[in-house]
Amino acid sequence: MVQIERTVASPQVMKNYFIGSVLSGGGSSPGVNASAQEWIKMVNQFQRDALSTRLGIPMIYGIDSVHGHSTVYNATIFPHNIGLGATRQVKRIGAATALEARATGIPYVCRDPRWGRCYESYSEDPEVVSSMTEIVTGLQGDIPSTSPKGVPYVGGKTKVAACAKHYVGDGGTVNGINENNTILSRHGLLSIHMPGYSASIIKGVSTGFVITDWEGLDRMTSPRHANYSNSILRGINAGIDMIMVPMKYKEFIDDLNQLVTNHEIPMSRIDDAVRRVLRVKFTMGLFENPLADETLVNHLGSHEHRELAREAVRKSLVLLKNTNSMLPLPKKGSKILVAGAHADNLGYQCGGWTIQWQGQSGNNATVGTTIMDAIMNTVDKQSSQVVYQENPDTKYLQSEGFSYAIVVVGELPYAETEGNNMNLTIPEPGPTMIKNVCRAVKCVVVVVSGRPVVIEPYLKWIDGLVAAWLPGTEGQGVADVLFGNYGFSGKLSRTWFRSVDQLPMNVGDEHYDPLFPFGFGLTTEPTDDSN
Q: Which residue range or ranges hold the Glycoside hydrolase family 3 N-terminal domain (predicted)?
């Protein structure tokens, strides 16, 4: 029933406390740029420690694979879920993520983009979210026709156990504040927030037990961890089966034992929780094959998976404005300005939950292609010139004679509460750069963000506007569509507001007056390469 962070796990801890699960918290890895082999060595050692106990029950290793196996260096980082929602396709991505996770060892509805976890949701629309639970079968495998529905299923050694997270209503909190109260009717709860979970269960999502979030029991009180024993009592008796402690495991185990001894938590409740956890371990095949398969290491960051991610990026891009058919852009005979810090920053285009919990800036955290590199790879090098200026001034813009500009701006990386944002403005110098560049040169603005942001004040100067979301490591997919190798096809999975004063605003609301409505997205056709 106890899940602990890998940094406090040791052979003695695993054996003496019969630890049932170990996890990597956000950004927790066996070392900087750790290889697949290093991950395998660590996970297998924890597993051997668990198997050496009296009962020999294998442990489950948990990790957040939010958009690919994203804690691991050189893994394929797919677009975050808000971008995948624009594609309406995820099953193959789930299968690729499962393989990369095996090479080393998610359905809620976001109703308010001010929420710091909005990019982890596929859509504001429960039907879209339900359809995207196809990722469960990608991660776990297709359920055989003879298998009962609603029963956990994992289809072999190349698949993993998926987790339907976090909890019903999590994406509907007041003002989009992370871990705030969700206030709505029972009908609203069941019709808006429940369908994704129901669909996941029907597809055999393997977490057939309830697990807390990081220090979830601690956060039942204010201040945190006050009257911890009572939080354990209430939580376990309410039906929690596994507790992400994750550090103070000794205190938790001592308090839990005391509560059971005093008959405040019945042994039948403990048996019920253990039965649920064991069922998942059996379903995963951990008793038969507890150790990692080293023959899968070459799947991590494979060419096949990167091509799949590149395809996902292409399909996730949403074209919001295209004055005078500005897009697709010509590859030949042009002097092209590329501006904005997000154009040449792999960390920015991947966002949070990438190597580190909060993400990071720069191009050295993992392996991938920036949007700038992708542009350079795409244009005709003989007849076109590409100039990168992170923040060009007006004098420079007027003197260089650019054919057109690509301005790439957006949000800085964030995750969870750190991403709560009540104004949703693009950080400076983004807005000023849009005004300066787009008033001087024909321009396409590419917005790299985990949600819709304030854009209406600048729209009059923009010729082409593209929502690129958080595309991940395969920035080549952005250039593929900007320059017409493929057409735009993505559709908004979230309503794009005019002003934050309208929020929350979702499709179907009585007073629905968006800048771009749910499902909006202009299309283009591929162009000839001689363009």
A: 6-205, 208-280
With a CB cutoff of 8 Å and minimum separation 6, the contacts of 42 are 6, 30
Residue 407 backbone class (left: φ over 0; alpha: ψ -120 to 50; beta: rest): beta
* pLDDT for position 530: 41
Give the ranges where 160-266 is alpha helix by DSSP (H): 186-188, 195-202, 228-238, 249-261
Average pLDDT over residues 275-285: 94
Residues 37, 49: Cα–Cα separation, whole Å: 18
Compute φ and ψ for 24, nearest 5 degrees: -95, 115
Which amino acids are annotated catalytic? Answer: 213, 416
- Please say whether the beta carbons of 317 and 481 come within 8 A: yes
Local structure of residue 83 (DSSP, 8 states): H
In DSSP terms, which residues pair with 321 in a beta bridge? 465
Q: Is the pLDDT of residue 286 over 50?
A: yes
Instruction: Specify the amino acid at residue 109.
Output: V
Which residues are bridge partners to 409 per DSSP? 447
Q: To 10 degrees, what angle do helices 91-102 and 303-316 make?
A: 150
**Average pLDDT of the chain?**
95
Work out whether strand 464-467 and strand 318-322 pair parallel, antiparallel, or are unpaired. antiparallel
Phi, psi (degrees; rounded to nearest 5) at 367? -105, 130
Rg for the chain (alpha carbons), in Å? 24
Which amino acid would we find at residue 511? H
CB atoms < 10 A from the CB of 437, how many? 27
142 DSSP assignment:
P
Nearest to 313 by CA among 322, 305, 301, 321: 305
Q: How far apart are the first and last CA of the chain?
A: 61
3-state secondary structure of 182: coil
Contacts of 125 (CB under 8 A, 6+ apart): 109, 493, 506, 507, 518
pLDDT at residue number 150: 84
CB-based burial of residue 395 (10 Å sphere; 0-12 exposed, 13-18 middle, 19+ buried)? Answer: exposed
- List pLDDT tens digits, range 367-402: 999 999 999 999 999 999 999 999 999 999 989 999
Q: Return the structure tokens found at 527.
A: 């162009």
Of 57, 55, 56, whose CA–CA distance to 280 is shortest? 57
The DSSP code for 531 is -
Q: Is 330 exposed, middle or buried (0-12, 13-18, 19+ CB in 10 A)?
A: middle
Burial letters for 129-149: b for 16+ Cβ neighbours within 10 Å, e otherwise?
A: bbbbbbbbbbbbbebeeeeee
pLDDT, tens digit (0-9, with 9 covering 90-100), for 4-59: 999 999 999 999 999 999 999 989 999 999 999 999 999 999 999 999 999 999 99
